[in-house]
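With this grant's support, we have settled on a layout for protein records. An illustrative entry appears below exactly as we store it:
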Amino acid sequence: MVKKQLIMEKAIELFAKQGFEATSVQQITEQCGISKGAFYLSFKSKGELIVALIDHFMMQFTSDIDHLVRYSKDDEQLLYKFYYATFTAFNKHSDFAKILMKEQTQSLNEEFLVKMHYYNRIVEENIQNMLERLYGDEVNQIKYDLVYCVKGFMSMYSELFLFHKLSLDMETLCESLVEKTRLLAKHTTIPFITKEIIGMTRTQIEEVTKEQIIDAIDQKIEEIEEPIVSESMVLLKQQLQVPNHSPAIVKGLLENIRNHPHCKWISYLIRSYFQLY
């Protein structure tokens, strides 16, 4: 296992048990069986490690939500599945979710903020696509308000188990939010958020290039030990360089890597690049 990946995985275990503040770099290095010098070759500080872990979490969360919205066949259950996937991810990774909320309001790390704008934009676009798919022209005038309402539900209701440590009935929570979302979609008559406001709040983000995707694949190929995942990555890299496979084959290769925690984001990038929706 590559040292950087080892550090991240062992740090996740310690953070889950002890929390971020109580975990020292010394404890992380002891858990990894490496020196502090080796740690600082990969990360300048524990803070940089935390940002890297949050980045990793957001890559997984964003790509999972995108896949769910784009590939779900059951419109009747789509909203419920969306909320369930959101709260399950935040509950499972509660330590990261809490630090994520804190970092978004307090961080002065420009690189981190740019990344979060990027992830937020993808999530917002997925919510908008989902609402347009479910309600069509019926919500054309209020869809941007609805996007903000759904994001508000995601944030505020997450606090119940993130900060109050309540044991929640996830199914009832999601059913309740589905009902609330439908009521807003059916009965909201005074929109506030306009396309112009959305345009001002969404930072312009440079699209990821083919060369950047190939670089990311090269890095992951060195890290991944599972043969079917690494071999699929090699074939996908070749497809980016010289396209010669059918969309069906590319989709099959993407399925081979999509559920690997370190490949979800690459799967999302390749699917977006080839527009395999």
Q: What stands out?
A: The CA atoms of residues 236 and 242 lie 10 Å apart. The domain at 3-43 is CATH 1.10.10.60 (Arc Repressor Mutant, subunit A). The chain is about 75% helix and 0% strand. The mean pLDDT is 87.
